[in-house]
Amino acid sequence: MSWPGQQISRRRALAGGAGLLAAASLPCTAEAAATYTNPVLWQDFADIDVIRVGDAFYYSASTMHYSPGAPILRSYDLVNWEFAGHSVPRLDFGAKYDLNGARGYVRGVWASSLAYRPGNRTFYWLGQIDFARTYLYSAPSVEGPWSQLASLGNVYYDAGLLVDTDDTLYVAYGNTTISVAQLAPDGRSQVRAQQVFSTPASIGTLEGSRFYKVGGNYYIFLTRPANGQYVLKSTSGPFGPYTLRQLLLNLPGPVPGGGVPHQGGLVQTQTGAWYYLAFVDAYPGGRIPVLAPVTWTSDGWPVLQLVGGAWGSTYPSPTLPTPPRQVTPMIGVDTFDGTALKPKWEWNHNPDNTKWSVNNGLTLSTATVTNDLYWARNTLTHRIQGPSSTATVTLDIAAMRDGDRAGLALLRDSSAWIGVKREGAATRLVMVNGLTMDGSWNTTGTGTEAASVPLTAGRLWLRANADIRPGAARSGTFSYSLDGVSFTRLGPAFSMGNAWQFFMGYRFALFNHATRALGGSVRVPRFEVSVP
Fold first, then answer.
1. Which residue stretches of the chain have pLDDT < 50?
2. 353 with 470: CB under 8 angstroms?
3. What is the pLDDT of residues 123-135, one digit of tens each?
């Protein structure tokens, strides 16, 4: 995946013109009684795969170095989504994913695939890691338990997993050179692999495979990063031969300042209608999903339905059965009830599970001695809700120790935070900016205090506000309160960059790390994400 206007593959980025539209235009008429608005979800969920099982839709996305990986969202109408779980419970791909002597920033879970196999009523997730191996996970339900079923020596880059009508497992994959592999019935080995397509130089790069069987034909959806979408079609079986057609190129998207919709998934509803769920590059917030209906030509090609020559900002809502219940909101208040984290939370790399707990409140014990937040384990992250939102955390700091740092960050390759520094008998509330990485994701700045005030309270409230409208660098601001009611701004506005190369968007992040010795802790009774 690349930033609009640059034809460079994600493989190249991580390892080291206007066109005709294959689309029909919908008339710009008065909105129907029931419509939806794009983006259908303004949070960072990229490299979309979407499937339907019964009356529920499931949506899988990339998470790079965040753990657990490969989140699964659930919907009953393709518009309103909730967290259901994660396909990869822990990034079991080497010590660097534990921040143990190395780091996995911008590695880990890239474009991967989610599928359901009716024959054994099993969900599968498949993805390659670090250009080294491909992993297959399985579960009886999206909530889990998920476990690693196989580790394959084959590298299926940007894989699309197809469960054929006879339950055979196929994988489409590759960058520019596109191949198809057949897996053994148990998914633990490769039976056959064959190149099926070579991208013409006039197109450049194609990747991001999604594999489908529709009406007896086989289709591989491919992305031209980051401004086009193409379709391969075979009438002769999964190994081709395939013919190519353009679905969209340089199509105006529905999010002002955002990019061209691309690299998504195709899904059919219970009533037979088809939809394409793609993402739009929308930094600094990340890559966000947009939905459009699809029809088919008489000779079996998909056609994206447009509004005024563009991906519509609104469309008639899908006609679907009444949902069995309302989905759980993606934002709101979390009091950390129970004894487990809700699936909306993901750690920066794998956590040290001996250093945190949930028991009607979250306790974060220091897990790392470092002056570099990018090396600190057990930093807990939450996606930012766009176009702007505010995170407010209640923080009990009585158990902090000398040298500890705890607070709330806006986390990316350029970061800032508000929080507490304990130094001997003195405790200060500080705003820190200047936490930076270079293009190889090495730390180049550990932060500079931009503002501070003395602190004597044992409980305080910290707040971060983030404007993540795409198209330019945007501001984040920090404030604090000693009573939970009246908040005071601390420090200057922080500029959140909109470069694409880190891939993941900005997140809210809770952290507590030591700079001298382990043993301290903080408690978080409440966390809230709210919108204006």
1. 1-8, 14-23, 25-33
2. no
3. 999 999 999 999 9
Contacts (Cβ under 8 Å, ≥6 apart) of 72: 58, 59, 60, 83, 84, 85, 86, 87, 114, 142
Q: CA 447, CA 436: separation in Å to the nearest integer?
A: 8
Calpha distance 532→368 (Å, rounded):
36
Q: For the chain, report the end-to-end CA distance as a whole number of angstroms.
A: 32
User: Residue 10: what pLDDT?
Assistant: 52
pTM of structure:
0.95
Q: What is the pLDDT of residue 95?
A: 97
Distances (CA, A) of 373 to 173, 328, 439, 506: 36, 32, 17, 15
- Give the Cα separation of 274 and 57 in Å (integer): 13
Cα separation values, 6 from 214, 225, 250, 278, 501, Å? 32, 8, 12, 19, 11
| pLDDT at residue number 274 | 98
Ranges of beta strands (E only) in 6-48 are 23-26, 35-37
CA distance 446 to 448: 7
Report whether 175 contacts 9 (CB < 8 A).
Answer: yes
Model pLDDT for residues 240-279, shown as the tens digit of each residue:
999 999 999 999 999 999 999 999 999 999 999 999 999 9
Beta strand ranges found along 42-176 (DSSP E) = 49-53, 56-60, 66-67, 69-75, 81-88, 113-117, 122-129, 133-139, 147-152, 160-163, 169-173
Least Cα distance to 121 among 53, 210, 211, 49 occurs for 53
Q: Which of 430, 461, 457, 429 is nearest to 527 (CA)?
A: 461
Q: Which residues pair with 521 in a beta bridge?
A: 365
pLDDT confidence of residue 14: 47
Cα(8)–Cα(20) distance, integer angstroms: 21
Query: How many Å is the maximal CA-CA distance in the chain?
Result: 77
379 CB-near residues (< 8 Å, 6+ apart):
347, 348, 373, 409, 411, 509, 510, 511, 513
* Angle (nearest 5°) at CA 513 between 509 and 514: 165
| The predicted structure's pLDDT at residue 32 | 38
Of the candidates 207, 205, 203, 180, the one whose C-alpha atom is nearest the C-alpha of residue 191 is 180
Question: Do 477 and 494 touch, CB atoms closer than 8 A?
Answer: yes
Length of the chain: 532
Of 452, 413, 403, the closest CA to residue 432 belongs to 452
